[in-house]
Amino acid sequence: MRKARAGGDDEAVRQNGSSSRRRTDQHPGDGEDHDSSSGGVQDDDDDNDLGLRREIRSKYRDLINSVQQNREDMLSPSNNKLTEVLEEANKLFKDVRQAREAALDAQLLVVATDLGKEKASQLFSEGSAFDPTAFAEHLLSFMGLNRLEDEDDEPPNGCAGDGYLPKDAWHRLARRAECCFRTAPSFHYMMGSFYTEPPPPKQRIERQRKAPSKEAKRIMPTQLKKMEESHQEATEKEVERILGYLKSYYQDDPSPISYYEFVIDPNSFSRTVENIFHTSFLIRDGLARLKLDSDKLPCIEPVEEGEVEAAGSFSRKQCIVSISPKIWRELIDVFEIKETIIQPPETQSE
Amino acid sequence: MTQRKRLSNVQSSSQSKRQSNSFMTQEEDEDATFTQPSTSQVQRGLEKLTPAQVDQKTAEVVQYILVKDQKKIPVRRADLVKHVVKDYRTVYPEIIKRAMRTFEQVFGLKLVEIDSKNHMYVLVNNLDASTARPSPVERPSNPKMGLLFVILSVIFMKGGVVRENLIWNTLKKLRVDPGQRHEEFGDVRKVITDEFVRQRYLEYVRIPHTEPVEYEFRWGQRSDMEVSRAQILEFMGQLHEQDPRSWTQQYREAHSAATASSSQASSSNHR
């Protein structure tokens, strides 16, 4: 029915158009009797006509807008809004006299018929209807939507929505949907694309630089440790050893021993210096005594254990012994020192 | 037309430099520069080449297509000829035939021409997905496929064409808003109207007479090849807890398409 009406309207438009043109053409010219009357009518209605036409045009534009804006609403099969729009258009059309309004009417017709076609396609499925909203709801459940129970009172919004969609929601759907697709797996090289040359050498250089420094660090502590050992323990050992020599020599011959004969090693100047160094500890600790004999030459003798503390309370004199290789050689010549009393240690500390 | 014919005749005689230059100058319509050689031309071309040469060229074509397929954008014949086949264009049909065979036998893939007018190829999995067991290789799933699935399902269930607003509204209900950046998909509008369209999964066509401009969505040529309507209907049935047969029209369409082995020409599409 609607379609037939629309078709009829179409033809009416054409007729009206041509007839309106005829009227306007004849209007300026010599009017015939019937035309002059209609022309007269037009003269009077001219102002009304303009206003009326403007009104018609505005109403048509409103109709067109309402159809375009409220698309979804009009499409809904639950109402007859589209029919109402067309009926409105028919009413308006009765007053249409000029091409301009008719053009608007035609535009409305195009929009309305488009909508009509859409509505007809809704009747497409002879089976169950398909409702995208229900589909969306089911999908959300499938994707694992956590509907929070507190929000039962609030009406659920379409977009904002209640509930919390998990992070892997779309992955879940994609996995299920995979079986619908016959996608060719994308081809990628297993080892990835080749790298250009520069990066590896840089790494190597860094590693090489790091390695020596680490080893160097490691060396340092061990060296230090060794030195500390030689300083403390070795010295003590040496001092004790020398005390041993002094005592054993004194036992054999209980007269003070010539200091020079005791410390000098005719074979090595450095060992001589060491012996002087170690002997000075003995004297410092009060375990040995240096005194000048009748020739005013220094001689050394061990202190008896009982005497140690007593000797400590007496005055202690300090002296600085110096020796140079030249003096050392002179001493060797003068005293005719052939062999050393203090044997050198068996192992060297270095 | 006659001019093109003359060129192809020249081509068959010898592969001189003069020819390749004349091809280069016609760059506006690249496809027109390549006319499918006739079988006799192919025969003659093959005679001049060793089997090793043809095999090598076939392998190059296979590799090119495999890499191009990573982005799922169809391979244009013009590109293939220009960049890979080059001087071997006289034997192009033979090379393509061999490449197709290689894809099927070695990779289990099918090289299909989805657009016979513009000559574009895609790779489709030749293995039957419905009976396939879960893949032995754990492949990370692509969430975009989920999005695509939703759109294709709606279009299919609605008869093959939908106005874009229906898609946007449905997606909004799924918390995917084309106006906002989505944390999974990014620029949603771009993915759907640009990426999916370029990949030929969707068609995004302007509807005439609409003010403001509106578009409609249809299935793309790749979807026709790759996507099983029957499987979509199965999933629909599961989701809605209905028998897929209750959607009689869609069921009929899905299973007529299946019997025609998802070739493009077959089913009664609402085009």
TrEMBL record, chain A:
Residues 1-54, 198-217 are annotated as: Disordered. Belongs to the NSE4 family. Residues 1-13, 22-36, 203-217 have a biased composition (Basic and acidic residues). Residues 79-106 form a coiled coil. Component of the SMC5-SMC6 complex, that promotes sister chromatid alignment after DNA damage and facilitates double-stranded DNA breaks (DSBs) repair via homologous recombination between sister chromatids. It comes from Poecilia formosa (Amazon molly). Residues 256-342 form the Non-structural maintenance of chromosome element 4 C-terminal domain. It is found in: Chromosome, Telomere; Nucleus. Component of the SMC5-SMC6 complex. This is Non-structural maintenance of chromosomes element 4. GO terms for cellular component: chromosome, telomeric region; nucleus; Smc5-Smc6 complex. GO terms for biological process: DNA recombination; DNA repair.
From TrEMBL, chain B:
This is Necdin-like 2. It comes from Poecilia formosa. The lineage of its organism: Eukaryota, Metazoa, Chordata, Craniata, Vertebrata. Residues 54-254 form the MAGE domain. Pfam families: MAGE. Gene3D superfamilies: MAGE homology domain, winged helix WH1 motif, MAGE homology domain, winged helix WH2 motif. Residues 33-43 have a biased composition (Polar residues). Residues 1-44, 245-271 are annotated as: Disordered. GO terms for cellular component: nucleus. InterPro entries: MAGE, MAGE_WH1, MAGE_WH2, MHD_dom. Residues 8-22, 256-271 have a biased composition (Low complexity).
